[in-house]
Write a structure and sequence with these properties.
Number of strands: 22
CATH class of the largest domain: Alpha Beta
Number of helices: 14
Distance between the termini: 72 Å
Mean pLDDT: 82
Shape: rod-shaped
Radius of gyration: 71 Å
Low-confidence stretches: 1-13
CATH superfamily of the largest domain: PAS domain
Strand content: 15-25%
Bound molecules: adenosine-5'-diphosphate
Number of domains: 4
Structural class: alpha+beta
Length: 686
């Protein structure tokens, strides 16, 4: 394709360029539209996933926040319960032994209690008990640094007559790990007055384990932190790869504010964190797939439509360029289709023919019955001859023409006959050619006969020459004898006889010349052409014309243009033509109804644009005229309407005139008769 393009004509290549650039811009636009669509869908998907992730994260964060505040309230409740337990213990005012056993029970129940002390108002430890779950806390660490803080806490407790908590502190342990602890001081009241203190040491980690471990510890890492983020106690662990959610909540206790931090052990949201975005994504993908399928389908459909349109256009072009007429009829004989060739053939528009049934507008009126019968036979299901049949149609202008018809049943895709399809061939041209060939055949036969006649004429002329020469010699001899005698005896009879003999001699000479000319003509020798004045030609034939004119009662008149040029011709043959035409004209007037018997011989100059001029000879009669029938075969050899006629005169005349380069024709003469005219070339100037 690309190789052929440069050789295409400029307008084609320009059109091709235009088409290419239009197609390219269309393709570019479509590609960018597709990119935009895919981009949009992707952006939508990403946004959706991101939003869903964020939603899930916020959900989880909220859950974690809720859990943290629940945890804080759980701890607070637990601490409240502890205070109740301790108050219960104080109210019993137990002796030391009983106190020990009671406290051991409490320490066994509450794992976050590490140590319980009973102190007097000065802070002297009266009783104490350690948790059974760990080694004694303050064996190595004597809390010297924390005593002031403890006293402060107890003072606060005494002041408010309620529990007070100390700041937490780290207690190193022999195993090297150590732990963060916090004290709670509860005054021992007797009738509203503090008499001592109960000091409870909480292990912060144990607080986390015992109060929150079961509920929150499995999924989260729970810790107490300082405001600067330092961890005081931790419970639970978090795998590092997972996303961390953090929630913090203040645990406000009298004397201390702890910060509870909960780290969620929730993994980062997946690409499709929950069903909704996954569903939307799946639906979007399905939508895009359906869209792609639709586009593919519509492309296939478009291509199919284009192919169909091409096929239709090709079929239409084929039908339009066909010279064979096509016509379809349904089973009721109604026309359902005609092609342009058929319309052109019959001269009707397609609209004028479609839906028409018998009698068709192109049937000759007298043949309607026959054609209708033929159609009835066809519609009855009888197949027409395969080789077709001939018929005659009438055009819209009334002219008739022969057609060759081929008919075949019209079968649809289901194999069912829906009508008849006919093809028509206008065979007028064929007929004309056949006619021409027949005519030329006849002409050939005539020519053959003419050749035979020519041979006979040649023979005759040869045979007649001798007697004619003898007649001429005898006439000359007789004339010589008479002229001698006439000199002595001047009788009128002798002079008449002399004249008669002169005419005999003259005519014998003329006859001889005619015979020689015919001989030459038959032998196809070049005639001896001579320069002669037209008037001389007419004058030469006048005596013979007059002779016959007198016999038939015809008046002969001659008219000549002034200053006629000479012509170059075979004089005898042209005289013969003039004689022949004059004789025919006079014979045409030999009719009882003929009113005016006048034969006019005209000679005039004919217009010419050649180097030489033309002289036109007209022979006009007032006879019966020439009917159309006769006119058709007028110049056909051996055609005659006369009983004694040969029918060779006119065909010979035309041959002679055409051999001189002229032209012979005839026209009707108004009001009666015929005008024959022929032209001959003038002689070149000498
Ligand atoms: P022929 O004179 O032997 O019949 P032609 O060839 O000279 O042969 O003429 C052929 C026919 O043409 C004649 O028989 C006649 O019917 C017709 N014809 C010729 N000239 C005239 C004319 N001037 N007027 C009427 N009919 C003519």
């Amino acid at each position: 394709m690309s190789q052929a393009a440069p050789s295409s004509p400029p307008h084609v290549s320009f059109g091709w360029q235009l088409f290419k650039s239009a197609t390219r811009s269309f393709t570019d636009r479509r590609v960018s539209l597709w990119i935009a669509l895919v981009g949009l869908v992707l952006a939508l998907l990403v946004t959706l996933v991101w939003l869903a992730g964020r939603y899930e994260a916020s959900q989880y964060q909220a859950e974690l926040d809720r859990d943290t505040s629940d945890a804080v309230s759980d701890i607070r409740t637990g601490f409240g319960r502890h205070i109740l337990n301790l108050q219960n213990l104080q109210s019993k005012a137990l002796p030391p032994k009983a106190w020990q056993s009671e406290v051991a029970g409490l320490l066994g129940q509450n794992r976050d209690w590490l140590r319980l002390e009973k102190r007097d108002l000065q802070g002297i430890v009266l009783e104490f008990a350690n948790t059974p779950f760990r080694p004694p806390l303050f064996e190595t660490h004597t809390r010297l640094n924390e005593q002031a803080e403890i006293l402060q806490t107890c003072l606060r407790a005494r002041r408010v007559n309620g529990p007070a908590y100390s700041r937490s502190y780290f207690v190193p342990q022999p195993d090297g790990i150590g732990l963060e602890v916090m004290e709670m001081c509860l005054p021992i009241l007797e009738r509203g007055t503090a008499v001592g203190f109960t000091l409870l040491t909480y292990g912060l980690q144990e607080v986390l384990i015992s109060h929150l471990g079961e509920t929150y510890g499995r999924r989260n890492e729970i810790s107490f932190i300082e405001p600067d983020g330092t961890r005081l106690a931790v419970h639970g662990t978090l795998p590092r790869a997972k996303r961390l959610f953090t929630a913090t909540q203040l645990l406000d206790l009298p004397g201390i504010t702890l910060v509870l931090r909960m780290d969620g052990r929730r993994a980062a949201p997946n690409l499709f964190p929950n069903v909704l975005p996954a569903l939307v994504t799946a639906m979007s993908i399905a939508l895009v797939s359906v869209l792609i399928l639709l586009v593919k389908d519509s492309r296939r459909r478009l291509k199919a439509e284009r192919d169909l349109a091409d096929a239709l256009a090709f079929r239409k072009a084929m039908e339009d360029s066909l010279v064979t007429g096509l016509r379809a009829r349904d089973l009721h004989g109604r026309i359902t289709y005609v092609n342009p060739a058929f319309c052109q053939m019959v001269g009707f528009e397609a609209e004028q023919l479609l839906g028409k049934s018998a009698p068709m507008p192109y049937w000759p009126s007298e043949m309607v019955g026959e054609y209708q019968q033929r159609q009835a036979v066809r519609l009855a299901g009888n197949a027409p001859p395969r080789e077709g049949f001939e018929s005659v149609f009438v055009r819209k202008d009334g002219s008739r023409f022969p057609v060759l018809i081929f008919e075949a049943p019209l079968i649809n895709v289901l194999g069912k006959q829906t009508g008849w399809m006919s093809a028509f061939l206008d065979i007028s041209e064929q007929r004309r050619i056949e006619e021409m060939s027949r005519a030329s055949q006849e002409r050939l036969q005539a020519t053959a006969r003419l050749a035979t006649v020519g041979e006979m004429a040649s023979l005759l002329s040869h045979e007649l020459n001798q007697p004619l020469a003898a007649i001429s010699s005898y006439a000359t001899g007789s004339l010589n004898l008479i002229s001698n005698q006439a000199a002595a005896d001047a009788s009128p009879a002798l002079s008449d006889l002399q004249m008669a003999l002169e005419r005999i001699s003259e005519q014998a000479g003329r006859a001889g010349k005619v015979i020689n000319s015919v001989h030459d003509f038959v032998r196809r020798r070049d005639q001896d052409k001579e320069v002669v004045h037209p008037r001389a030609l007419i004058e030469a034939v006048m005596p013979l014309v007059q002779l016959q004119a007198q016999k038939l009662g015809v008046r002969v008149e001659t008219t000549f243009d002034e200053r006629l040029s000479h012509i170059l011709c075979d004089r005898t043959m042209v005289e013969q033509v003039l004689l022949n035409l004059s004789r025919n004209g006079m014979q045409a007037m030999d009719h009882p109804h003929c009113q005016k018997r006048l034969l006019t011989l005209q000679v005039k100059r004919a217009p010419s644009n050649l180097s030489h001029g033309w002289i036109e000879f007209c022979v006009i009669d007032w006879g019966i005229g020439i009917s159309e029938e006769i006119a058709k075969q007028l110049f056909t050899p051996f055609f005659t309407t006369k009983p004694e006629g040969m029918g060779l005169g006119l065909s010979l005349c035309r041959t002679v005139v055409e051999q001189h380069g002229g032209h012979l024709e005839f026209l009707p003469h108004e009001p009666h008769g015929t005008l024959f005219r022929f032209t001959l070339p003038t002689a070149p100037d000498v």
